[in-house]
Amino acid sequence: MSENTLYDKVWDRHKVTTLPNGQDQLFVGLHLIHEVTSPQAFGMLQERDLEVARPDLTLATVDHIVPTADQSRPYGDDAAENMMSELEANVRDAGIDFLDPTTGDQGIVHVVGPEQGLTQPGKTIVCGDSHTSTHGAFGALAFGIGTSQIRDVLATQTIAMEKQKVRKIQVDGELEEGVEAKDIILEIIRRLGTEGGVGYVYEYAGEAIENLDMEGRMSICNMSIEGGARAGYVNPDETTYEWLKETDYFQDNERFEELKPYWESIRSDEDAEYDDVVHIDAGELDPVVTWGTTPGQGVGIDDPIPAPEDLPEDKQDTARRAQEHMRVAPGDTMNGYDIDVAFLGSCTNARLPDLRRAARIVTGREVHDDVRAMVVPGSQRVQKRAEEEGLKDVFEEAGFEWRNAGCSMCLGMNEDQLEGDEACASSSNRNFIGRQGSKDGRTVLMNPRMVAAAAIEGEVTDVRDLPEAEVTA
């Protein structure tokens, strides 16, 4: 097993005991909750007459079902209104801070945690959402959990887990212009598979990772779960610390200086031992897009879609069904694939730098006549900053709809959904059949600039062929 990695150090420091079943009981440093997975857990507490153990270490927001167009109450969807009302009652009774839409701080749970400065190196973080691995970008151990585990954390501020192996993914070299963090993680999943990370956590390292901003690191860690990994993380460094200094939590510099030695101490040692190491040359990457119905079915923009018979036997039937659903053929490329919808949003790619980069592509251009395009900021803070910088105007002048913060079309739990067999160029994290609201819909995952290019051209397009405009930010 691994030794002296960040994972080992943080795990050991949060371990309370080893349980009779062999699992370790870990103290949880931050519990994030939202409206979809928490009501049942609160109900379980009420049935047992239990209280929330540490409301001060719990933060709530609303993201999955919140409308992104009309947010007036009551919501038009009865189920959404009921979930919102349930969450409001639960957090009020428990004394939990709630970032609701009236606060100006509401947003996707994996965007607001880092924004608030609550996501920090060396913390254990859990949330009833599979993409909780996002927070690993800061050097935290962050896990998505189920409803019964949410109950346990609410009641005890601890969780029972089995320790995993650690795979180091070393990404060296420099990315070409137009190639982003999203392309790195799509390539990792393509190479290792959607189940390649089962039993592992991923440590992302190397020159290409170190050169990413925090938003890029969050995009990569966000999709660790899509590769089967239990979590993913990046060792904290000066980039991490500079981000944290700007957050509300660390406006008191004394608090920052007190914690920094701990953050430094939990970095993986130079001679740390790993269970596996994978090497990737960032300089060889092109923009990666998906051709199928899992994040692992990806390909470089100009590379041929594989023939099912050329894939491992256990992946052939899945590939055939995916190609039939997506209406693609072996040997074709995704360059030129017609789209009907362009979605720029999600906890993977809806932060301010994502919107800035996409805006440079759409400036001075117009959305294709056959495409409906929308931008959904990841949080109200992102939304406000983008509007102050004029990004909203840039997108709207090009023909994009500008929405309020939320998960939106990433999973189609509100009114933002595909219709019929529409094809969507999406900056989100999953392309499963039905994921965006229609069982016949087709989703093509790509980086934010690629989404912008597809919106303009009406088809999947190599963004490197479109010169960028200067956008004052």
Please supply descriptive tags for the structure shown above:
alpha/beta; five-stranded parallel sheet; 473 residues; 32% helix; 15 helices; globular; Aconitase, domain 3; 16% strand; 19 strands; single chain
Which band does the percent of strand residues land in? 15-25%
User: Which sheet architecture does the biggest sheet show?
Assistant: 5 strands, parallel
Mean pLDDT: 97
CATH class of the largest domain: Alpha Beta
Broad structural category: alpha/beta
Describe the structure.
- The protein has 473 residues and is of the alpha/beta class.
- The chain folds into two domains: 6-265, Aconitase, domain 3; 290-465, Aconitase, domain 3.
- The chain has 15 helices and 19 strands.
- The chain has helices spanning 6-14, 39-47, 78-94, 109-116, 147-156, 181-192, 207-210, 214-222, 238-245, 253-265, 313-326, 352-362, 380-388, 391-398, 448-457, and strands at residues 15-18, 24-27, 30-33, 58-61, 97-99, 124-127, 141-144, 158-161, 165-172, 200-205, 232-233, 276-281, 288-290, 298-300, 341-344, 372-375, 400-402, 423-426, 442-445.
- The strands form five sheets. A five-stranded parallel β-sheet has the order 5-4-3-6-7, with helices on both faces. The protein has a five-stranded parallel β-sheet with strand order 17-16-15-18-19.
- Helix 6 links the parallel strand 9 and strand 10.
- Helix 6 runs parallel beside helix 8 (214-222), helix 12 (352-362) packs across helix 14 and helix 12 packs parallel to helix 15.
- The model has no long low-confidence stretch (mean pLDDT 97).
Summed up, what is this model?
With 473 residues, the chain is an alpha/beta fold. Helices cover 32% and strands 16% of the residues. It has two domains: 6-265, Aconitase, domain 3 (2-Layer Sandwich), CATH 3.30.499.10; 290-465, Aconitase, domain 3.
